[in-house]
Amino acid sequence: MSKPSRLLIAASGTGGHLFPAIALAEQLPDYKIEWLGVPNRLETQLVPDQYPLHTINLEGFQQRFGLGTLGILLRLANSIRQVRQLLKENNFQGLVTTGGYIAAPAILAARSLSLPVILHEANALPGKVTRWLSPWCTNVAVGFAAAENYLPRVSTVVTGTPVRSQFRTPQTLDLPIPENVPLIVVVGGSQGAVAINQLVRQSAQSWFDAGAWIVHLTGENDPDAQSLQHPQYITLPFYKNMAGLFQRANLAISRAGAATLTELTVTQTPAILIPYPYAAEDHQLFNAAVLADAGAGIVFRQSELTPQLLESKVLHFLKSPLELKEMRSRAGALAIPDSAEILAELVRKLVN
Ligand SMILES: CC(=O)N[C@H]1[C@@H](OP(=O)(O)OP(=O)(O)OC[C@H]2O[C@@H](n3ccc(=O)[nH]c3=O)[C@H](O)[C@@H]2O)O[C@H](CO)[C@@H](O)[C@@H]1O
């Protein structure tokens, strides 16, 4: 039997970068996969035990201020050297990355060794590293077709963004929610969103009065997370079974990270989207526009959204099941549920 191919996956920082990479890795059980991340981010908790995690220190390189261009270049050169050494010592045959800062040294190191690189960009407005370095990659896959407009010199393929396998089969929900009540899920990306949490807590009473239940994923950093108590209200800092939750939900109130939006299309969950206003280059607004333009959701900028406006919009949806049904099917029309397999196929072609 031939030896398994060795693949390095560089994905780091947030759930939005990690979950799609984990979903892809799940489709490559015959590969010897190892992970590249940084020491103090979510990968130390989320990367499954079967993938050894190597870390490099990107501090300084990630800071926008403080270091001059020369400082940043020196850091980058140092990171590239570390990744090159890792790739050579372990005889990796290729690299997959989901973008972000970790992608810069990873792509440059792998290409300097002539290894194939597959870059997956989940956002509708590709990040800076993707825009700068995609011409160097062997293959560039995008989650949303809109991203292709920003990568004019690159040949890209629209693969969608991989979702964890649970999203594609019906999941049971281990939360005590009655069967026939409308369910609203509130989620602020993998870190939670304090501003959305506050808006929701101020608006929720009339949704309870209308019979709705709320599952509110607050993130770990909300000091007031426990301030609202109600029999129809479940609050958790983080929840693993997002597939079960989105499948059951009638409506989501959410930030507009690419991974979450992709999941919402796969589970066909209508959404009120409130893009994170401080995201790099306002990229969440571009993601949200993809769903809004397709009629799968509506978008509010955080600055224009008052508790009253949110309250009345949700009440409107709770009274309009037909409208929600149409939004569900429009969300479904955007979905590429087998994105992980499509990307895995690409990996098999290039890394062997
Ligand atoms: C603030 C910021 O810049 N965030 C970016 C970050 O995503 P960030 O991680 O903030 O957000 P995403 O929405 O893309 O992904 C969140 C992921 O965490 C999961 N989840 C969330 C809460 C929870 O309780 N349990 C759980 O499992 C979601 O199901 C999803 O898979 O990378 C994304 C992909 O490049 C970008 O589109 C986002 O804009």
List keywords for this structure.
Rossmann fold; alpha/beta; single chain; 352 residues; cell division; six-stranded parallel β-sheet; membrane; binds uridine-diphosphate-N-acetylglucosamine; 12 helices
Provide the succession of SSEs.
EHEHEHEHEHEEEHEEHEHEHEHHH
CATH topological fold name of the largest domain: Rossmann fold
Write the CATH architecture name of the largest domain. Answer: 3-Layer(aba) Sandwich
Distance between the termini: 14 Å
The tally of beta strands, per DSSP, is 13
CATH class of the largest domain: Alpha Beta
User: Fraction of residues in helices?
Assistant: 25-40%
Number of helices: 12
Give the number of domains.
Answer: 2
Residues in β-strands, percent? 15-25%
Average predicted confidence as pLDDT: 95
Oligomer: single chain
Structural class: alpha/beta
For the sheet with most strands, the description reads: 7 strands, parallel
Task: Describe this structure as you would to a colleague.
With 352 residues, this protein is α/β, with parallel strands linked by helices. The chain folds into 2 domains: 6-162 and 337-350, 3-Layer(aba) Sandwich (Rossmann fold); 167-334, Glycogen Phosphorylase B (Rossmann fold), CATH 3.40.50. It contains 12 helices and 13 strands. It has helices at 15-26, 43-46, 69-89, 103-112, 128-133, 194-209, 242-248, 258-266, 283-293, 307-318, 321-334, 339-350, and strands spanning 6-10, 32-37, 53-55, 94-97, 117-121, 139-142, 156-158, 183-187, 213-217, 233-236, 251-254, 271-273, 297-299. It has a 7-stranded parallel sheet with strand order 3-2-1-4-5-6-7, with helices on both faces. The longest helix has 21 residues, at 69-89. It is elongated. The two termini are 14 Å apart. The model has no long low-confidence stretch (mean pLDDT 95). The chain binds uridine-diphosphate-N-acetylglucosamine. Residues 14-17, 19, 122-123, 187, 189-191, 217, 238-240, 242, 257-260, 263, 276, 279, 283-284, 287 line the site of uridine-diphosphate-N-acetylglucosamine.
